[in-house]
Design brief:
mainly beta, 2 domains, eleven-stranded mixed beta sheet, 11 strands, 44% strand
């Protein structure tokens, strides 16, 4: 059964239908390239391209709207702010109860990390936010992360910022991208 898809790439947003059967999150984790039928693309400059059948490298999908089918059962949700390519994303990231980044043995697996109550806007263009109940974030494409918890290992290579600094209140943390992946 075909699966609808909405996603964000480095050059704009798209929607269409994946002609493969299965859950979208599973397809994102097992496929290297994803066919999208009747794909409608809106470039960052606002130009709407005519529908076409295309194939995207899964790594090129920075953000993917989710149906929330993969919600963790007993999650504690944490506010997080991310910069992913040209997008600023705010949402809530789940961890297990009692999660301690300094002692965590379990690390996230897979390419995509789930957020709920997510808002996506273009960096430098506040007020044009699209809101999504659930969003999958390509964790390897995240450039910056700001959260109360040390979440660097969720987003390897991302610069870590304090939540106050990302809100324009204080200076950025001095963590290097390499320190982000060492997190905890």
């Amino acid at each position: 059964m075909p699966t609808p898809i909405e996603a964000y790439t480095a050059d704009g947003a798209l929607s269409g239908v994946v002609p493969l059967g299965g859950r979208l999150r599973d397809l994102l984790e097992i496929e290297e390239r994803l066919p999208i039928d009747r794909c409608r693309r809106r470039r960052l400059d606002g130009v709407l391209e005519p529908p076409a059948d295309v194939v995207f490298a899964v790594d090129d999908l920075l953000l993917v709207v989710s149906d929330g089918a993969e919600l963790p059962v007993h999650a504690v949700w944490h506010d997080v702010r991310l910069v992913v390519g040209p997008y600023a994303v705010e949402g809530r990231l789940p961890t297990l109860p009692g999660f301690d980044p300094a002692r965590a043995l379990a690390r996230p697996t897979g390419t995509y990390v789930l957020l709920r109550d997510a808002a996506v806007e273009l960096v430098g263009r506040p007020g044009l936010a699209a809101e999504h109940p659930y969003l999958l974030v390509n964790r390897y494409a995240v450039d910056e992360v700001a959260a109360e918890l040390m979440l660097g290992f969720f987003f390897p290579g991302a610069a870590l910022r304090s939540p106050r600094a990302s809100a324009g209140v204080g200076p950025p943390d001095q963590a290097s991208p390499g320190a982000a992946s060492a997190g905890g």
